[in-house]
Structure formats: structure tokens, C-alpha cells
């Protein structure tokens, strides 16, 4: 991967960045995504944010090498603190856990109040944590994708400001866990992901049932049985 050829998951993120956007890429690493977008004249301005010094220095070096310092501002800081109010209209956060992404959004939500119109989020795990945050904070999912790359499965969530409750009216539990768009499409990556998750849960459930009885183990078993049932319903039911 480089500034001319992104990974499949980052290409998916890139296609949802609006034309002529001013966007912030949080956790930008080598600033590949910002450089890629600017070199294609697709955006006006980018903030590449990094909290760790090593990746921050890598991003600074990359942007200078590409001669893009006038278009990309590389900043060191935690999450959305690298953004000034009304500075960007789109935020991308990719390659982190869903719980961490939700925490970044929560801690920096005052930066999202005014000018930010779109969030493009690519969690490696726990996309449900992001969906829950979006639902609670008046952001509506407008699209989702799930894809496989190098043996790993990734989800991309795209949200804009709005009331997302109608997306979850039919079955909130399923929609939060599987994704309201993804569980309708049920592509090969989706089926593979949840088949694998089901097998993992079944293995844990078997171990729990052979463990000493306790209230905690009983609760965990019930929760796993519930999730396994949901997977079966979503994958086999054509109406989902």
C-alpha cells in the first residue's frame, strides 16, 4: 500500500469521502489516505491526526515527500482534539476497534456539532459499539459495506446527521449487531464473518457448560445462546 494504491478497505473508505470535502483522518498512520485523496484532486484540505509519535513522524515525512504540505496539515493529538471548530465537514477513522472509535467520537463530539456532515468509520472489530453511539447521538447510517482482505473481514460505516431510529424499528437488537444494511445484503464476507463468530461462540458455550456452575457462567451461556440464535435467524431467513 502507498499513496497511489490503497488497501481494499481504505479504498472503500475513500469512495465515501465527498468531492471537494475538507476532511480529518484520525489515526492517519502514514497519511496514505489523505495523500491519495489530494493527489486525485478529490478534496480541498485534509487534517491527518495521530496521537502516537512514531506514526505522526511517518505522516509528516510522507506528506513532505509528496509535496503536499499546503494541502495536508499533519497534527499530533488525541482523537478529535486535532480539529478546530468548523474546520472540516467530514471525518474518517479507520483501522481501530469499534469501542475505541465510539470513545473518540464521544470524547470529541463537541467538534462534530456544527460543520461535520459525514462520518466514515472502519472498525476492525465491534462495529455494534459504533452503531449504538450513532443511534444515541442523532447520526443516521446511510450506508455500510463489509469486505474481506488478506484473510480479515472489515466493515465500513457511513453516517450523516439525522434520526436513525427508523432503521432499527423492526429489530433493534439484530440491526445493531449485524448492521441494518449488511444483514439485508448478506454477502459472502458477511456470511463468513458470522459463521465464524457462531462457531467461536459455540466453542465457548461448550466450555462453559462443562465448567462449575455459577450465576456468572449461567448468564454468559444464556447470552451466547441468544447470539447464536440471532446468527441462525439472520443468515437463514430471507426476510431479514
TrEMBL record:
Domain of life per record: Bacteria
Pfam families in the cross-refs: TrmK
Record-linked InterPro entries: SAM-dependent_MTases_sf, TrmK
Protein's recorded name: tRNA (Adenine(22)-N(1))-methyltransferase TrmK
Record lineage: Bacteria, Bacillati, Bacillota, Bacilli, Bacillales
Amino acid at each position: 500500500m502507498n499513496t497511489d494504491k490503497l488497501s481494499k478497505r481504505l479504498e472503500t473508505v475513500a469512495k465515501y469521502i465527498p468531492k471537494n470535502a475538507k476532511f480529518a483522518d484520525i489515526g492517519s498512520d502514514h497519511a496514505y489516505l489523505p495523500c491519495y485523496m489530494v493527489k486525485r484532486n478529490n478534496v480541498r484540505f485534509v487534517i491527518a491526526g495521530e496521537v502516537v509519535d512514531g506514526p505522526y513522524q511517518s505522516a509528516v515525512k510522507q506528506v513532505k515527500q509528496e509535496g503536499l504540505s499546503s494541502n495536508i496539515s499533519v497534527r499530533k493529538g488525541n482523537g478529535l482534539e486535532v480539529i478546530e471548530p468548523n474546520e472540516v465537514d467530514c471525518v474518517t477513522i479507520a483501522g481501530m476497534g469499534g469501542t475505541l472509535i465510539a470513545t473518540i467520537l464521544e470524547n470529541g463530539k463537541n467538534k462534530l456539532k456544527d460543520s461535520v456532515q459525514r462520518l466514515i468509520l472502519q472498525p476492525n472489530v465491534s462495529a455494534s459499539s459504533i452503531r449504538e453511539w450513532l443511534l444515541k447521538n442523532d447520526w443516521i447510517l446511510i450506508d455500510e459495506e463489509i469486505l474481506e482482505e488478506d484473510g480479515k473481514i472489515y466493515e465500513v460505516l457511513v453516517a450523516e446527521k439525522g434520526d436513525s431510529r427508523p432503521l432499527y424499528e423492526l429489530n433493534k437488537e439484530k440491526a445493531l449487531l449485524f448492521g441494518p444494511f449488511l444483514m439485508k445484503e448478506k454477502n459472502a464476507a458477511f456470511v463468513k464473518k458470522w459463521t465464524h463468530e457462531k462457531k467461536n461462540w459455540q466453542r465457548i458455550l461448550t466450555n462453559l457448560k462443562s465448567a462449575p456452575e455459577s450465576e456468572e457462567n449461567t448468564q454468559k451461556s444464556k447470552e451466547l445462546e441468544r447470539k447464536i440464535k440471532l446468527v441462525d435467524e439472520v443468515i437463514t431467513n430471507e426476510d431479514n
